[in-house]
Amino acid sequence: MKVASASQTGLHPTPQLAEAAVRAALDRAGLHRADSVLLFLTRDYARHAAPALLAAVRAAGSMEVAGCTAYGVISEDGWILDQPAAAALVIGDTGNVAPLVAGQSPLLSFSGYHALPHGWQSGPARAGMLDTGALAWAHGRPVADASAEIRLPGLRARLAHSTGLRPLSEPLPVDVVNGYDLRQLGGISAFASLQRWLPGELRATPPLHQIVITRHPGTPAVAILAANADGSLTLGEALEPGTLVRWAIRQPLASEEDMRRSLLDIPQEDALPGAVNPEKQPEFVVMFSCLGRGPLYYGNEDRDLLAVREQYPGIPLIGAYGSGQIAPGAGGNHLFQNSVVTLLYESFHV
User: Fold this and answer.
1) Strand 36-42 and strand 65-70: pairing?
2) Measured by CB atoms within 10 angstroms of the end CB, which terminus of the chain is less buried, N or C?
3) What 3 state SS string does 59-91 have?
4) Are the beta carbons of 255 and 167 closer than 8 angstroms?
5) Sheet hosting strand 340-347, strand order edge to edge
6) Which pLDDT tens digit goes with each residue over 170-200?
C-alpha cells in the first residue's frame, strides 16, 4: 500500500486547486493513479464543489473520491483556514491488502446538517465531521442530502477522542430543574455550586463559554448558555433530576494535554472492535477537529495537530475543521463540540 497527502491554496476556489492537491499527493506516494481518495475543500467551494470534484476524480483516475467542504483543511503540509484550499489523501497499490469484515472500523461520515442525522445515532460506529451547510460527496459524486458515508477497504482504525476538558468537581447530583434551567445542584443553587468548584481567580466572573457540565463518559458535554439572577443556569440541554454530573472547563493547556493522552492511552472499554495495536505505526492519520479547537483557540498554532505530528512523525495525514465531531460513545454515536476525533488507520496484507 502507498499513501500520501498534500494541500494546495490559491486566491480563488478553482478546480485546478483540487486537481493540484491530488496530483501532488500522487507524486509523494509514487503513484500514477489512486484506488481511494479523501478530498476536503474549504467553504469557499460552496458554489464550486462539483467542478473541483470532477477535476479530482480525473486526476486520481478513480471514482472512489469522498469528503466534504469544511471551515478549513489539514494535511501533511499543515493547516489552512483563511483562504481557498484543497487537501487530498491518496491510497494506492492496495491489491495485496486483505478485505475486512464490516464493523471492524467506524464508517467515515460527513454531514452538512445542523445536528447528527437521526439514522446515524444508532447502528454501526461512525467517526467523522459535521459542518452546518457543508456539501458532501462519495464515490466521486455529490450527495443530494449532504450526508455521505464510506468505509475504506482493507483498512481498520484505532479511534482517539480528545474532549479537551479539565474536570473541576466530584460527581454532584442534579436536585432541581425547570426545563433548560438548572436550579439546584448538590444541595445549593447551580451558580453557587459552580463558583465553589472554580479556581479562585475565576469565581468573580466565571467564563461561562469555557465551562460545561459532563455526564457519563462517552457522551457530549452540556453547554451553559446563561447565568440568571435567581442563581439558576440556563443549559443547552435539559437534565434529569438525580443525574450525577461534574463541572469541567476548557483551557488550552489542559486541552493539549488531553490530546496527547488520547493518542497514548486509550481505555480498553472505549476501543472499537478490531482496534489496532497502539504500539504499531499507522499507515496514515485522519483528523477531525473543531474550529474552536484549532489555531483560533491555541493562538495561531494548532497544538493538537502538533501532538499528532510529534507522536507519528512522517506519517501521511489529512483532516478538516468543522462545527461538530462525530464519534461512537455510550449508547451509540454522538455529535461532540470543541473536540478532536483522530483515526489511526492500519492495513492488512495477504
Assistant:
1) parallel
2) C
3) HHCCCCEEEEEECEEEECCEEECCCCEEEEEEE
4) no
5) 78-80, 72-75, 317-322, 284-290, 340-347, 155-162
6) 999 999 999 999 999 999 999 999 999 999 9
For 272-323, how does the pLDDT look when each residue is reduced to its tens digit (9 = 90+)?
444 445 567 899 999 999 999 999 999 999 999 999 999 999 999 999 999 9
Helix locations, the chain, DSSP H: 15-29, 49-60, 190-197, 252-264, 295-298, 303-311
Residue 174 backbone dihedrals phi, psi, to 5 degrees: -75, 120
The CA R_g of the chain, rounded to the nearest whole Å, is 21
Question: Which of 82, 28, 88 shows the shortest CA–CA distance to 53?
Answer: 88
Q: What is the largest CA-CA distance in the chain?
A: 67
- Could you give the count of Cα atoms lying within 13 Å of 280 in the half-sphere of its Cβ? 14
Number of C-beta neighbours around residue 131 at 10 A: 25
- For 347, residues 6+ apart whose C-beta sits below 8 A from its C-beta are 1, 94, 97, 154, 155, 283
The CA distance from 89 to 343, in Å, is: 14
CA 220/CA 332 separation, integer angstroms: 12
Sheet bearing 85-92, strands edge to edge? 2-9, 85-92, 36-42, 65-70, 136-138, 141-142
pTM of the model: 0.92
Contact in structure between 255 and 301 (CB atoms under 8 Å): no
C-alpha cell belonging to residue 34: 489512486
For residues 8 and 187, give the distance between their C-alpha atoms in angstroms, rounded to a whole number: 56
What cell was used for 204?
468573580
Q: Which residues contact 39 (CB under 8 A, 6 or more apart)?
A: 18, 21, 22, 53, 56, 65, 66, 67, 86, 87, 88, 137
Kindly give the pairing relationship between strand 222-227 and strand 172-178. unpaired
3 state SS of 209: helix
Q: What distance in Å separates the CA atoms of residue 219 and residue 331, rounded to the nearest whole number?
A: 8
Length of the chain: 350
Q: For 126, how many CA atoms within 13 A lie in the half-sphere containing its CB?
A: 27
Please say whether the dihedral angle defined by the alpha carbons of residues 44, 30, 38 and 52, taken in this order, is positive or negative: positive
